[in-house]
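Something for you to look into today, if you have time. Could you write out one complete protein record for me, on any chain you like? The space below this message is yours for that.
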Amino acid sequence: MYARRVTVQLKADSVASLTEKMENEVLPLLRKQEGFQDALTFVSPDGVKSVGITLWESKEHADAYVKGAYPQVERILAPLVEGSAHVGGFNVVSSTFHKVGATVPETVSVPATVPV
């Protein structure tokens, strides 16, 4: 499983519009994408920053979304955002909600024992 994180600065008083656009426009579009698993949207308590995390079956599915539907999502949310989005991607190694096998990229060293 692969996670894609997008962080943006929101324009003043745009949380309600963000919620509406996510529910009515962005999520239906995401649900049509091959490999899409889940989406979470967070907003800071002061309403000026938002973080969106989408979960994908694989990095290849996320990459296909970036090349295909993501520009449409950017257009939908553009009236609510200040500046450019900051984007990052991560391999999901564990989840209490999604059934994810413990996979660790070969380039990461993991200690033999992990303190609890």
User: Anything to note?
Assistant: Residues 2-91 form a domain with the Alpha-Beta Plaits fold (CATH 3.30.70.100).
